[in-house]
Amino acid sequence: MFQIFEKDDLIKMIEALRLDMIKIGLVHGLSSKKVIQLSEQLDYYIVQYQTLHIKNDNKTFH
Q1: Is the pLDDT of residue 46 over 90?
Q2: d(Cα 53, Cα 29) in Å, to the nearest integer?
Q3: Average pLDDT for residues 22-32, to the nearest whole number?
Q4: Which one of 16, 35, 56, 61 is most buried, by most CB atoms within 10 A?
Q5: Cα–Cα dist 29/11, whole Å
Q6: CB-based contacts of 31: which residues, under 8 Å, 6+ apart?
Q7: Which backbone phi and psi does 19 adopt, to 5 degrees?
Q8: Which string of DSSP letters, residue by residue, matches 1-62?
Q9: What CA–CA distances, in Å, run from 46 to 7, 39, 61?
Q10: How far is 39 from 56, CA to CA, in rounded Å?
Q11: What φ, ψ does residue 13 adopt, rounded to 5°?
């Protein structure tokens, strides 16, 4: 099932995950399992944001 995100929600999720990843990375190391999991989640939301951004850009050119 696909989830639809709003741009502002994605930005908030990306920023929160990024901060969590940095904090955990400083304590447990960048190669810790939790940091890797957060990095994968962050990648997912960044791709969602980029996809939304591209769709919105294409609408303005038509």
Answers
A1: yes
A2: 32
A3: 97
A4: 35
A5: 25
A6: none
A7: -65, -40
A8: ------HHHHHHHHHHHHHHHHHHHHHH-TTSHHHHHHHHHHHHHHHHHHHHHHHHHHHHT-
A9: 11, 10, 23
A10: 26
A11: -65, -40
